[in-house]
């Protein structure tokens, strides 16, 4: 499965969370992921937290990619961070715009869009980094419309991105339609679906409303019926997401990027359900 699967983690906040991260990462080594990535900024995490978690992953033997966002950062900050990652042996970066924390006022920084960060990384570090960017099959929530958003995605690829990871979705058609439209605009880089496990209804619905991912009505209804029954939610979630992953692979998705939420169990359960060879897994 190595080249088929990549995994996403977030930086731990304390020692207990770090131990859990390491435990989960060790369990997930069985999947031989092509690479793992570590988020930045979401939930108040710092760049040092991301760099430290990347170092932990590197020690465990993973090809580890930090997420790097540009909104609110200066060119000098970003250049320094890129050099530090280079010294750390990092060869892959997930380049994002990011979001300004609420209450921080308008966007007055030097970078306003991820395409500018991609261009900056190429200008300052050449081909050192493999650059991943974000893609939104169901449209980024701030985009004027889907066509404009697709155009902005194409700009990131033209600026030098090597591949893309999508926001999560539960409707495979949204993904394939996006991939088709991107290809029609000349995009040839892999667009890998981001896969969100379903383990906690309230968290999933809240986060989906924020990031513009659609949770279909039938899934919402089933989750509502389960109430606080965590075991049923988990079993249902594993079944739904496994089926989605299988459809994506069967119809030609180039891989799967799992949002692990620093938890091994669900990702392992889903990958066990998939019809992919154990030798590759
Ligand atoms: P962009 O590609 O810059 O797009 C942002 C918006 O601007 C879109 O609506 C786009 O249509 C529009 N736009 C782009 N270019 C232009 C232009 N030239 N003119 C006008 N409008 C334009 N957030 C974190 O804080 N930390 C993370 O670690 C993190 N990891 C993520 C990983 C993945 C795989 C994904 C899908 C998202 C992640 N996010 C993360 C969330 C992300 O930061 C937000 O979705 C953010 O709002 C947009 O980032 P972007 O890189 O997609 O921005």
Description:
Helix 1 runs parallel beside helix 10, helix 3 (75-87) packs across helix 4 (114-125) and helix 9 (230-250) packs across helix 10 (264-273). The model has no long low-confidence stretch (mean pLDDT 93). It contains 10 helices and 9 strands. The termini are close together. It is globular and about 50 Å long. It has a 9-stranded parallel β-sheet. Helix content is 46%, strand content 13%. The chain has 281 residues and is of the alpha/beta class. The chain has one domain (5-197, 253-262): TIM Barrel, CATH 3.20.20. Bound molecules: flavin-adenine dinucleotide. Flavin-adenine dinucleotide is lined by residues 39-42, 67, 69, 94, 96-99, 113-115, 134, 140, 142-143, 148-149, 152, 156, 165, 167, 194.
